[in-house]
Amino acid sequence: MSNSTEETQASDDLPSAPAQKGWKDRLKPLVGIAILVVVFSLLDLGGSLTWTTPEGSNVQVKGEVAGDWRGEEIRFTPNEDWERGELVPPLLADWSVGDPAISVRAGRSEDEAAGVYTWTPPVLRIFRDIDLRYVALTLFLFFIGNCLAITRWWRLLRGIGLHTTWRNVFRLNFLGLFFNTVVPGLTGGDLVKTIIVVRESPGRRTDAFISVIVDRVLGLMALTALATVVVFVVPGFEALQSGIVIFLVGAVVGATVYFSKKLRALVRFDAMLAKLPMGDKLKLIDNAVMLYSDQKLELAFALLLSITNHFLYITGVYFLGAACGVSTLEVSWNQYLVIVSIANIITAIPTSPGGLGVGEALYVWLFGMIDARGSLGIAVSLTFRLCQLLLGLLGGIYLLLPGAREEIDSARHQ
Questions:
Q1: 69-105 burial, b if ≥16 CB within 10 A, otherwise e?
Q2: Which of 2, 102, 131, 300 could be a cystine partner for 323, CB 3.0 to 4.6 Å?
Q3: Is the pLDDT of residue 73 over 80?
Q4: Beta-strand (E) ranges in 158-275?
């Protein structure tokens, strides 16, 4: 299916991307960095021992965590400036400055009548001791997930008559990933890959632009549906239930009204659209979106690809947790289903480049909901970000090809 000649000519007159970034785009990196600084300032980044009383009170003692901090037992030495409060961990009742390190077992000590002990190593030590085998496995899962997302967009392009090869869509996807995740503050990766694919189908700029939007929306819808289910199934995240349901209901109602011809006529949608500023351009976009309304099987398959992609990414983050020393007893795979889904939904809001700072704050917050250590949460989030960065570097390989830089520069300034 294709647009009329008039629509084709008009579609090429759609507003282009601004060549210069506005003040909002320049502010976003600062917002992300500010949030990251606040998270780090509130987090226990050094070693510490926490004793939980039978009544649920927590007593934290900062000091040096020695030995294999991933095991069931460590050697712990409080800082010299440690001062006893009203509550003192029984293991430290007789300890004083200059005494040898004490031996601490995780959980409830066999030698003490009450109290549970946990500890947190310094964040830098978490990264120093990271298990690269799990990181490699995560990168593999992320790569397969990206291939599924590429297949989804490729089929969406073919569905509206924009024929290109899967290999070319692979190239465009990783070029977009490169510009979205590698170049600080740049959010034009999708725009770059869209303009390039349009060159292979002259006169279909609107359709190609909408294919990217539909691709993103389908991914977000699948992620929201997954989050809605797991929030009600996995214990510990009850506080999120009302918010995620409201979001999903709003999205479903909006999509139902938009794609229903009877409901569109009832609310006089086309008339309202025509009265809006740039109504003729919005009408072209609306026509392009409606090209997908009769392709229900294709959209259902795209949603299936999206769900599978999300499961691969969540499993990858689960392995990143294992790489950072997060045990399955502290955060299970089921709990990662909630944590990663919610974090990815919220970081999709363009408040900072790639959700910088926002993602780290969310992981600390969501880890805290299930009494997991926040320092491990921020380590997982930062490692996840580094893995995305490494995948983005694959797109940089295409910039080494003859004429690639000229093509990218031309696309970015169209």
A1: beeeebebbbeeeeeeeeeebebbeebeeeeebbebe
A2: 131
A3: yes
A4: none
Of the candidates 282, 228, 276, the one whose C-alpha atom is nearest the C-alpha of residue 251 is: 228
Per the document, the length of the chain is 414
| Token code pair at residue 125 | 């030590």
Burial of 156 (0-12, 13-18, 19+ CB in 10 A): buried
Kindly state the tokens that stand for 394.
């694959």
Q: Tens of pLDDT along 123-172?
A: 788 888 899 999 999 999 999 999 999 999 999 888 878 878 899 889 88
pLDDT digits (tens, 9 = 90+) for 237-249: 999 988 888 888 8
- Under a CB-based contact definition with an 8 Å cutoff, are residues 49 and 65 in contact? yes
Would you report the helix, strand and coil content of the chain in percent, each value rounded to 5? 60, 5, 30
Tokens encoding 265: 């006529």
The DSSP code for 52 is: E
